[in-house]
Amino acid sequence: MLDLLAVQSGTANATLITLAYTLILTFILSSVIAWTYEKTFLGLSYSRNFVQAIVLSAVVAATVMQAIGDNVGRGLGMMGALSVVRFRTSFKDPRDIMFVFASLGAGIGCGVYAWGAAVGGTIAFSAVAFLLSRTGLGTKHFFDGMLRFALPNEGEARAKIESILHDSLKTYILITMREVDGGARIDCAYQVRLRATKPAAEILSDLSKIEGISDVQFMMQDATTEM
Description:
The protein is α+β, with helices and mostly antiparallel strands and 227 residues long. It has helices at 4-9, 16-40, 48-68, 72-83, 94-111, 115-135, 155-168, 200-208, 221-226, and strands spanning 145-152, 169-180, 185-194, 214-220.
């Protein structure tokens, strides 16, 4: 069986065996990073193509580093060639950029035969990503969601709604109110915090029973934050 330490110490010029070890390890590590992204993803804009791009970017980085090796001239030529390419893909989430950097780091580490650093870095990055997704670090939710509905512009309907909100919700704050249908109706939106004993479905059912109310909607805080 081939001794990996011997291969790593004798790689001034890449051989077919070392290249195979490099690309296989690169694929494994980048797949781990992509799997971590898939399991820890929170949001609405999930992309299968992005997950595959994580794996492919590591393979490209490893191949580039293999091609350059220790040759300064190759490195300068590669920089010139890559400068022609224009990457216009925008990332809405800074977290996505970190996964791309992690994949590139693993590919570069494998490409320069720093296999220990590549493996250790991938394990550490994946472990921290799982830890952050489970602990919810950075979460700052004062409200559970947004409640929105339209009601007749009359005192009786407003009084009934106010009574339901007061009895069913822990906290609620009016954030928007506007007249529609020439002032005959009012469109309202509230930031709300639910009681543990009163789920959102029951509140929507109670509001729907009020005569004249329409377009009753409840959006969870995670969804409104993503949008």
